[in-house]
Protein backbone atom coordinates (compact mmCIF):
# COMPACT_ATOMS: atom_id res chain seq x y z
CA UNK A 1 0.00 0.00 0.00
CA UNK A 2 1.40 3.39 -0.94
CA UNK A 3 0.59 6.40 1.21
CA UNK A 4 1.23 9.92 -0.17
CA UNK A 5 2.85 11.08 3.07
CA UNK A 6 6.31 12.65 3.04
CA UNK A 7 8.34 10.81 5.69
CA UNK A 8 9.91 12.78 8.51
CA UNK A 9 12.14 11.87 11.42
CA UNK A 10 10.91 12.11 14.97
CA UNK A 11 12.46 15.11 16.73
CA UNK A 12 13.72 15.05 20.28
CA UNK A 13 10.96 16.64 22.28
CA UNK A 14 10.99 18.40 25.62
CA UNK A 15 8.31 19.56 28.04
CA UNK A 16 8.45 23.00 26.42
CA UNK A 17 7.25 21.52 23.11
CA UNK A 18 3.73 21.44 24.53
CA UNK A 19 3.55 25.22 24.16
CA UNK A 20 6.64 26.13 22.13
CA UNK A 21 6.03 25.98 18.38
CA UNK A 22 9.31 24.56 17.04
CA UNK A 23 9.19 23.82 13.28
CA UNK A 24 10.54 20.27 13.65
CA UNK A 25 7.83 19.41 16.19
CA UNK A 26 5.08 20.98 14.07
CA UNK A 27 6.27 18.99 11.04
CA UNK A 28 6.20 15.76 13.06
CA UNK A 29 2.71 16.49 14.42
CA UNK A 30 1.46 17.13 10.87
CA UNK A 31 3.05 13.80 9.84
CA UNK A 32 1.19 12.01 12.66
CA UNK A 33 -2.08 13.64 11.59
CA UNK A 34 -1.60 12.47 8.00
CA UNK A 35 -0.85 8.91 9.17
CA UNK A 36 -4.15 8.90 11.04
CA UNK A 37 -6.02 10.53 8.14
CA UNK A 38 -4.81 7.87 5.67
CA UNK A 39 -5.36 5.11 8.24
CA UNK A 40 -1.83 3.76 7.82
CA UNK A 41 -1.57 0.22 9.14
CA UNK A 42 1.62 -1.58 10.09
CA UNK A 43 1.50 -5.34 10.70
CA UNK A 44 3.32 -6.81 13.68
CA UNK A 45 5.47 -9.02 11.46
CA UNK A 46 6.72 -9.30 7.91
CA UNK A 47 6.30 -5.74 6.67
CA UNK A 48 8.54 -4.31 3.98
CA UNK A 49 8.71 -0.53 4.32
CA UNK A 50 10.11 1.87 1.76
CA UNK A 51 10.44 5.55 2.60
CA UNK A 52 10.49 7.75 -0.51
CA UNK A 53 12.12 11.08 0.27
CA UNK A 54 11.58 14.01 -2.10
CA UNK A 55 14.53 15.41 -3.99
CA UNK A 56 15.53 19.02 -3.31
CA UNK A 57 14.02 21.57 -5.69
CA UNK A 58 17.53 23.00 -6.22
CA UNK A 59 18.68 19.86 -8.03
CA UNK A 60 18.90 20.02 -11.81
CA UNK A 61 16.44 17.98 -13.86
CA UNK A 62 19.33 15.81 -15.03
CA UNK A 63 20.38 15.02 -11.47
CA UNK A 64 16.79 14.30 -10.46
CA UNK A 65 16.46 11.86 -13.36
CA UNK A 66 19.67 10.04 -12.42
CA UNK A 67 18.83 9.86 -8.67
CA UNK A 68 15.18 8.81 -8.96
CA UNK A 69 14.61 5.63 -6.89
CA UNK A 70 18.29 5.46 -5.90
CA UNK A 71 19.54 4.91 -2.35
CA UNK A 72 19.10 7.88 -0.01
CA UNK A 73 22.33 7.95 2.02
CA UNK A 74 22.02 11.20 3.93
CA UNK A 75 19.89 12.48 6.78
CA UNK A 76 17.39 11.62 8.13
CA UNK A 77 18.49 8.18 9.33
CA UNK A 78 16.42 5.15 8.40
CA UNK A 79 16.01 4.27 12.09
CA UNK A 80 14.62 7.74 12.87
CA UNK A 81 12.11 7.50 10.00
CA UNK A 82 10.96 4.12 11.28
CA UNK A 83 10.70 5.40 14.86
CA UNK A 84 8.57 8.34 13.69
CA UNK A 85 6.23 6.00 11.80
CA UNK A 86 5.90 3.56 14.71
CA UNK A 87 5.32 6.35 17.23
CA UNK A 88 2.77 8.02 14.96
CA UNK A 89 0.76 4.81 14.70
CA UNK A 90 1.09 3.24 18.15
CA UNK A 91 1.19 4.35 21.77
CA UNK A 92 3.10 1.15 22.54
CA UNK A 93 4.93 -0.52 19.65
CA UNK A 94 6.54 -3.45 21.47
CA UNK A 95 4.25 -5.94 19.68
CA UNK A 96 6.11 -5.39 16.39
CA UNK A 97 8.80 -8.02 16.23
CA UNK A 98 9.90 -8.46 12.61
CA UNK A 99 10.42 -6.45 9.42
CA UNK A 100 11.32 -8.12 6.13
CA UNK A 101 12.89 -5.06 4.58
CA UNK A 102 13.50 -1.39 5.35
CA UNK A 103 14.88 1.14 2.91
CA UNK A 104 14.86 4.80 1.97
CA UNK A 105 15.09 6.06 -1.58
CA UNK A 106 15.13 9.34 -3.44
CA UNK A 107 11.91 10.09 -5.35
CA UNK A 108 10.16 12.96 -7.08
CA UNK A 109 7.39 12.90 -4.46
CA UNK A 110 7.55 11.82 -0.84
CA UNK A 111 5.64 8.65 0.11
CA UNK A 112 5.63 5.63 2.37
CA UNK A 113 5.15 2.18 0.84
CA UNK A 114 4.17 -0.69 3.15
CA UNK A 115 3.96 -4.19 1.74
CA UNK A 116 2.63 -6.98 3.91
CA UNK A 117 4.36 -10.31 3.36
CA UNK A 118 2.26 -13.38 4.02
Written account of the structure:
The structure is a single chain. The longest helix has 15 residues. The mean pLDDT is 92. Helix content is 29%, strand content 21%. It has one domain. It is globular and about 45 Å long. The chain is an alpha+beta fold.
Shape: globular
Q: Give the helices and strands as they follow along the chain.
A: EHEHHEE
Characterize the biggest β-sheet: 4 strands, mixed
Global structural class:
alpha+beta
Order of strands, widest sheet: 1-4-2-3
Q: What oligomerization state is this entry in?
A: single chain
Low-confidence stretches: none
Query: Count of DSSP E strands?
Result: 4
Overall pLDDT confidence = 92
Number of domains: 1
Helical segment tally?
A: 3
Helical residue percent band: 25-40%
List descriptors.
four-stranded mixed β-sheet, 3 helices, globular
List the helices and strands and how they pair.
Layout: E1 2-3, H1 23-37, E2 47-54, H2 61-67, H3 78-89, E3 99-107, E4 111-116
Short description:
Helices cover 29% and strands 21% of the residues. It has 118 residues and is α+β, with helices and mostly antiparallel strands.
